[in-house]
Amino acid sequence: MTPAPRRTHQAAPPREDVLAAVMATVAERGLDGLTMAGLGRAVGMSSGHLLYYFRTKDELLLQTLEWSENRLGAERRALLARPEGVRERLEGYIALYLPAGHRDPHWTLWLEVWSRSQNADDEARARQAAIEGAWHRDLVALLAEGVSRGAFRPVDADRFATRLRALLDGLSVHVTVGIPGTGRERALAQAAEFLDETLEPGPRPGDATGVTTAS
């Protein structure tokens, strides 16, 4: 009697391979093209196995976002450590913050996670806040450095960082969804104008010159 073939256990792919496959799918087909069945085929797993490891699609998306943010965080830290002027590093921070263009996969994922966060639990919200907090702290430190060196006008670094990130978030949404008349280059130019008007030392555009005349 021929013995039955032994069943072999197929090891799950590394977590990072799954998350990279999510990003690749979002980049190629958008979020509408991301299904658990399709992702399973891409990484050699069943959709049931994916749900076993990630529990829900919301958790899969959040973990993918965290993975992508970790990579961006490494880029951001390297950028901020460069021996350049503080304004140049700030412009580099902004360039890294803004999406590459319409349907940027990282920002597409961010927007989806944001939209789902209305029903997220406290743990998921805390993890999202940690992502936001890392960007914010680095920006505050950069602004404080610029103020201390006299490269920027005196501002409250924390408050200014909140305003600047709100501007960048709005510009990023427009670029990502492809609103006509928007784009990465236009967003970069608008951010640079904002810095010139609010942060550069000296009188602001439109300020009175303070010229006096003899009586």
UniProtKB/TrEMBL annotation:
Keyword Transcription regulation appears in the UniProt entry: yes
Keywords linked to the UniProt accession: DNA-binding, Repressor, Transcription, Transcription regulation
Gene3D superfamilies according to UniProt: Tetracycline Repressor, domain 2 (1.10.357.10)
Residues in HTH tetR-type domain copies: 12-72
Any GO MF annotation of the entry: DNA binding
Keyword field contains Transcription: yes
DNA-binding feature ranges: 35-54
Gene Ontology process terms (BP): regulation of DNA-templated transcription
Record-linked InterPro entries: BetI_C (IPR039538), Homeodomain-like_sf (IPR009057), HTH-type_TetR-like_transc_reg (IPR050109), HTH_TetR (IPR001647), Tet_transcr_reg_TetR-rel_C_sf (IPR036271)
This protein's name: TetR family transcriptional regulator
Organism in which the protein naturally occurs: Streptomyces californicus
